[in-house]
């Protein structure tokens, strides 16, 4: 085990842990953002640079700072390492620059994008981006294309994080898409006319941090913040069968895997669960979903619609008000 201090908070982690995962172990605001790293995808990370941090002391044995900012998802901790994230103005300035780069070719189509409200880039731009753009050149443009019968690719929104190619490599039997060309000509595409069509391909939609890959069965049906996310499960012979149903009344508009506080899928689901069971009767509904990830959806606290919790909350308020001896009119 080794000791590491991040933004003044000390923690102990197993040797070989990355700075990002050490920060996640502490939790809270000091955790660097991540757009390409994905804990369940082997070799992910190192592409987007939003997780840059400053190492102001390498280790107990070598107290010198690292000469440049480092990607926290790819740099492992050493005993006595001291790391600065939010406490370093240099890191904040660099992150602002990285966000500006990520947005160079990204269209401002949040008002019509299905990912709005649960988009990592949107959140990142709010937290670390500049309020205006300095970019005057023309942006890259692409036709929207179908990659498979259920997935639509908007290449203009892609930030080339490679997560979807890793899902295809690691979760499905054969990858038929990838990053073609180099530099500013790079693009995600399928190999000549091939369609992404296999039992776990829908997970590419869930891991895409932006709205580049969208679910064709959900496109333009609703803004996510107008839906009620519900935890549900079914006996599935192919996957864990544990999902989130995005409902509106009795209608199931979308089925996705469940995500953790960092927006990462906890357990991948199969395409049958995702696309072929849009009838609520096919599912055992467990109750309102607690959205752990930072998202506008979590602002609505649907979970309080759970009547037992609601009753407890009302009881708590009554006790609180009695304790404060508020006049009766004020407690209504
Ligand atoms: S399509 Fe999405 S998941 Fe794939 S590389 Fe682009 S941004 Fe990443
Ligand atoms: S999350 Fe570390 S480089 Fe992208």
Bound molecules: iron/sulfur cluster, FE2/S2 (inorganic) cluster
Poorly predicted segments: 326-332
SSE string, helix = H, strand = E?
EEHEEEHHEEHEEHEEEEHEH
Query: What is the typical, i.e. mean, pLDDT?
Result: 88
Helical content class: 10-25%
Integer-rounded radius of gyration = 22 Å
Helical run tally: 7
Strand segment tally = 14
Major pleated sheet = 5 strands, mixed
Structural class: alpha+beta
* Approximate strand percentage: 15-25%
Shape: globular
Rounded to the nearest angstrom, the distance between the terminal CA atoms is 55 Å
- Strands in their spatial order, largest beta sheet: 2-1-5-3-4
Which key phrases capture this entry?
about 20% helix; binds FE2/S2 (inorganic) cluster; four-stranded antiparallel beta sheet; 7 helices; 14 strands; binds iron/sulfur cluster; alpha+beta; single chain; disordered C terminus; globular; five-stranded mixed beta sheet
Can you describe this structure?
The chain is α+β, with helices and mostly antiparallel strands. It is 20% helix and 19% strand. The chain has seven helices and 14 strands. It has helices at residues 19-26, 89-102, 120-128, 163-171, 203-207, 271-275, 307-323; strands spanning 2-6, 9-13, 52-57, 70-71, 81-84, 145-146, 151-153, 177-180, 187-190, 213-215, 228-233, 242-248, 251-256, 284-288. The strands form four sheets. It has a five-stranded mixed beta sheet, sandwiched between helices. A four-stranded antiparallel beta sheet has the order 13-12-11-14. Strand 6 (145-146) and strand 7 form a beta hairpin. The N and C termini lie far apart (55 Å). 33% of the residues are buried.
